[in-house]
Amino acid sequence: MPELPVSGGRAGARGGLTASVVVPTTGDRGPLLPHSVGSALAQTVDDLEVLVIGDGIDDSTREIVEELRREDPRVRSFEFPKDQRRGEINRHGVLTDHARGRIVTYLCDRDLYLPDHVEVMAEVLDDADWGHTLRFRIAEDGTTTFPRYPDLLDDRARARLHRSPYLAPLTFVGHTMAAYSALPDGWRTTPPGTATDRYMWDQFLDAGVRVGVSSRPTALTFKRGNHPGWSTARRLVELEVWSERLRSPEVSDEVAQAVIAGLERPRLEL
User: Fold this and answer.
1) Strand order in 268-269's β-sheet?
2) 252: left (phi over 0), alpha (psi -120 to 50) or beta
3) Cis check: omega of the bond before 2, within 30 degrees of 0
4) Mean pLDDT, the chain, as a whole number?
5) Over 60: is that where the pLDDT of 10 sits?
């Protein structure tokens, strides 16, 4: 995969697609991609592209990405040397110079979309610039947890954002390409000690964008664990189990309904 130049320019959606799905990855995490990328390709919305952005990937990951590209032309790959943080500036270059979707959604390489994630995000962003679906996590023991995320539709909660280190995990968030193009910087290198996602989302909120929210669970994000987190091999076992469960639309809907029911309880066994 060729290294692509990074541009400081701006561009809107250029290809008429509904969505560009950004999947950042790094190191040896290639075995996870058939599951995460596969969940993006299995969306109810099929006019999308999946932009896999490699931040210092190894040879085995590169081979897996190439295989995904051969299997589905909607997968596009961009490779860069390992960045000092998470390759944020390279995400900016790819979005600015190559993204073709009206909206942009994100997918952590260890997470999974439910089949309607892009469809729901597109509906949210019909009347908003930035938004998210229901925010929750799958813990290491398989239970569902609901951290105390701020209500971004509440003006008082938004005024207190500086008190909360969390807004929304990467996988739950989407925005329009037009709103991204209007930002002063876009993705940029994050200062030490600051979460990369939060640093980016603050830029949208500081710009006064319209925020949209869906209470529907549309994606599964898995707790990373304490640093350095689970190994790729261990995470793969988890994704294999969940991917198999989500192959059936009926099961996917059951998972979503179980998560909704879990809002009334502190812990839910799925």
Assistant:
1) 137-138, 143-145, 268-269
2) alpha
3) no
4) 83
5) no
Which ranges in 72-227 belong to alpha helices (H)? 88-98, 117-124, 155-159, 177-181, 196-206
Enter the tokens of residue 101.
Answer: 């979707």
The burial class, CB within 10 Å (0-12 / 13-18 / 19+), for 159 is exposed
Tell me if 114 sits within 8 A of 220, measured CB to CB. Answer: yes
Residue of 37 and 137 predicted with greater confidence = 37
- According to DSSP, residue 38 is labeled H
pLDDT recorded at residue 151: 63
Report d(CA 214, CA 235) in Å as an integer: 28
Type of residue at 169: P
Q: d(Cα 126, Cα 112) in Å, to the nearest integer? A: 23
Contact 101, 49 (CB under 8 A): yes
Sign of CA dihedral 162, 113, 177, 127: negative
Q: Per residue in 153-179, pLDDT tens?
A: 666 656 555 545 567 889 999 999 999
Strand 268-269 versus strand 143-145 pairing type = antiparallel
Asked whether the whole model's pTM tops 0.90, one would answer no
The tokens of 22 are what?
């950004």
> Among the residues of the chain, which ranges form H helices?
33-41, 59-71, 88-98, 117-124, 155-159, 177-181, 196-206, 232-246, 249-262
Measured distance between the N- and C-terminal CA atoms of the chain, rounded to whole angstroms: 39
Give the C-alpha separation, 23 to 54, whole Å. 9
